Every structure is written in structure tokens, then in C-alpha cells.
Amino acid sequence: MRLLSLLSGNGFVMYNKELAHTVSTNGAIVFGQLCSSYESFRIKNMITIRDEKEYFYLTSEVLREETALTYKQQLRAIKELEQAGYIYTKMMGVPSKKYFHITDKIINELVSEVNASSSKREDLNVSRHEEPSSLDQRENLGMTKGNSKPGQKGSAIKKKNKKEQYKNIKSNFVNKGTVNNEEVIHKLTNEYRLKGLSKEVCLRVVKEVIDTKTDVENCGAYLRVCLENTLYKSKLKRGEVEVSYSNMNMNDKSALYYDWLND
């Protein structure tokens, strides 16, 4: 810090690296000195107003003393700054002197950079908030039901409800014995595929039974009835059998009217 203080004393000139890339190094040096001179003239109330613009004068001798740039280097740097729209120049007074006006372009660029930086920081904060760390995930997994976060309560209840619904369907579909749901479905669908039903039709029957007949105590037997009557209806449609209700009970007759065959 002491070294920086020594360097910055009276021999310091403001230098903007971005402006140097846009214009030139000498242009950035001259612009820095112009900003410093403007502040000095403004404090002393020596600003000249022309066409609603603030002007101040600066001689080439002062610029050379402050920046160590030659007269030709100054002229070229000032021309570059004018062409880029950072300053206006005007000859005024007697004897005539070159007056300078600093435009709002540099201010607009600096404000845009600040806003862009703020936006990036906000996006970074949002992304960090949306993507919890592995530590946060472990903490969430380790939390008990009583200590769960308020924001997670609704989703936890929804998941619980879905699990309960699936549990109810599964328990209703399984017979009163120890027969497993998947075993019943696999056995019956394979049996009736061998008898002539397509895999698509068998799965359609299974879905219909699960969706609409969850109150049946013995769904294994009911599924067999549905598959049997679907097979009968399929054969009837192909003209392989004739309609006969004499050997059907009421459950068989009602199951016959399910529209599982759309082929």
C-alpha cells in the first residue's frame, strides 16, 4: 500500500484499460487527464456552458506536462476520442483556446457494465439456490418428519398420498391368500396370449381391472373372468363361436360388455 501511495501522488493519471482497447493507450491517457481537469474546473465553478453542454479548456502545454505526450500524440489521441464519441472539442475565446466536452457515452458504458455484473451475480445466486449442494441434500435426507422444512411438507404429503393409493390398489388386486400381484398378472396374461389374445389386449384388460375394480376382493379371479370373456368376444367377432348366455352368470355377462377390443 505504501508503494501505491508513492506512485499515485501528483504524478498519477487515470487510465481505463477497456477504453485503451477501444480507442488507444494514448487516447485512454488523454481521456483520464480530461476527466481530472473537468473535476477541477467544476469545483472552481469555471465550467463554460455552450449549446447546453459543459465545456472546459485545456492547453497542449498542460497536457504535455501532465501526460508526457507530444503535441502530435495529443492531436491523434484527441481525434480518436472524438471519432469514438467520447468527447467534443470547440475553439472559443480570445485568444482562442480548445475547449473540451465529455459526453455521456463513457458513463452509459460503465453503468451497463455494472448492471451486467449485478445480473450475473443474481443469476449465480439463483442457480446456487436452485441447485442445493450435496451437504444440503444429506441434511434433507437426514431430517426427521417432525423437523422437516415447511417448503417440503406439501411435496412429502403428495408423495405419501401416491404411495398410499398404489398400496391400496395393490392390496385390493391381490387375492386374500399370499399370491403376489405381478405373479397373477404374468400367469394370466401368458395363459390367454397362448389362447389367442394379443399382448396389447391383455394389458388393456389388466389396466381396466386395476383402474375400475379396486373394490373387488378377489381380483385374480375377476381378471380371469374378464380375460375369458374378452377371448370369447374376440372369437365371436371372428365368427369362431356363437353367442350363448346359458352358461354365464351375472358377473360374466357384465364383464363381457367391457370394450377392451378396439381392433
- Helical amount: 55-70%
Low-pLDDT ranges: 169-180
**Percentage of residues in DSSP E strands:** 5-15%
Rg to the nearest angstrom? 43 Å
* Secondary structure category: alpha+beta
Number of strands: 4
| Spatial separation of the terminal alpha carbons | 86 Å
Overall pLDDT, averaged?
A: 75
The number of helical segments is: 12
* N-to-C order of helices and strands: HHHEEHHEEHHHHHHH
List key phrases describing it.
63% helix, Arc Repressor Mutant, subunit A, 4 strands, alpha+beta, 263 residues, single chain, rod-shaped, four-stranded antiparallel beta sheet
Account of the 3D structure:
With 263 residues, the protein is of the alpha+beta class. The protein has two domains: 8-106, Arc Repressor Mutant, subunit A (Orthogonal Bundle), CATH 1.10.10; 155-256, no CATH class. The protein is built from twelve helices and four strands, in the order αααββααββααααααα. Strand 3 (87-92) and strand 4 (97-102) form a beta hairpin. The longest helix is centred in the middle third of the chain and has 26 residues, at 105-130. The protein is rod-shaped. Residues 169-180 have low confidence and may be disordered.
